[in-house]
Amino acid sequence: MTPSVVIGLCADYHSAMDDTTRDVFIRRGGPADAPAVLAMLDSAVAWMNDRGNTEQWGTKPFSEQPRRVDQVDRYLTENLPYIAEVDGTPAAALVLGSGPDPRIPIAPVAEPERYVRLLVSDRRFAGRNLGSALLARAVEETRRAGVRLLRVDCWAGGGGKLVAFYERHGFTSTETFLVGSWPGQVLAQRVD
Question: Is the pLDDT of residue 109 over 70?
Fold first, then answer.
């Protein structure tokens, strides 16, 4: 289960959050970015597997799973993707939707929201705080849309390290869920 575009518009953004993100260029993504996003996901799966984590995203590269390839294509055409580039190379991706993936068994909210459907980085760019830069962009875009709620879901296994990552970025844990034996955590952030 992946935690949880519009083509053409160029809403460019330079992030200057800190020294590691100063040269990061964040741009709108689209369907043409599917090979790069799949490569990022493949990189993340290999990295996790090398560290003994075979539960979060499994052991098979996303690019070799037709269901996952279709999922990435849908994310990049039906949602709002952003690509973080380092020296012109796609290095991380975030997909922002108007709600969670409908296959995730969580309670609906009674207000408009933005939902982080995917956040992934290429492990070659570890330490550049690309996830932080993309989450800051998600907050900015949520605010710009006049929406006050930003949510995300993530894998809750592995001692909660991923949950703690989102909590360090201003999210608060709200509800847990299971997809089969896959433990998930929903987190929310008020954007005022």
Answer: yes
